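User: My instructor asked us to take a sequence, write out its structure as tokens, and then describe one feature of it. I'm not sure where to start. Here is the sequence I was given:
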Amino acid sequence: MMKGYIENNQATKAIHLFHKIKDPNYVIFILLFNSCAQLGSDEGLNLTKSNALVKCNDLTYAQSFFDASIKNGVGMYAVMMNGYNKENNPLKTLNLFYQMKDKNHSIIYLHVIKALSRIGDYKLSQSIIEQIPNDLLHDNQIQTVLIDMWGKSGSIDKVKELFDKISQSNQYQYAAIINAYGLNGMGIQAIEIYRQISLNLIDEITHICILNACSHSGLVQEARSIFENIPIKTVSIYTTMIDCLSRASLFQEAQNLQEEYERSHPPS
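Assistant: Let's start with the prediction itself. The structure tokens for your sequence are:
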């Protein structure tokens, strides 16, 4: 299909299709670079090449390509930061951030905050967060990753302060604060938030976060009640509930639940 797009001068569609391919092979990459050449933009070509290298986990070559580029824009920095975060190398993400002159872009701070979440250094996090412009602090995605970051560093007061400032929370922010409370052994508070959420904002991630929160706080009965009322139970939801029961040493109940899942989801 990519070849068809290229032959019909639809390089952009070919590139979009590439990003949907999980494990691109050599032929796919040749088609990708042909698409880039058709676009005729050096910046677009470099960005797509970097994306391709990061997607293949070839960060060494991607970094060499990045270093050799005369002028790297925000997109190139974002691609490299995303790659290093996925490789669990947050310090390299921060090194890229420190190199940048024009840092005030939401995509850059999203990757930086995710890196800080992995590092878990309160003072370092605070020093960088103070640099974020006020308008970006009102960005929904920025708010969500900040809640996650402060939760992982144990700064629950920061979590609550930030969440309380959000005028209308979305499903991701609710899930983030529930997860933050759960990580800090505050299962009761997590349940209180969960009970406030409109049904249309509760999804699989929210259910997993609340069951995990109950698990970390030993709230088995509450977890049972929540689990029983979940309308669509995915394999991840079953797995989380089984883990909750196992943590409480309720191994027989956990085994029964696993067998229930297997009966209702026979191999195809």
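For the description part of your assignment, you could build on this observation: The first helix runs from residue 2 to 7. Try explaining in your own words what that tells you about the chain.
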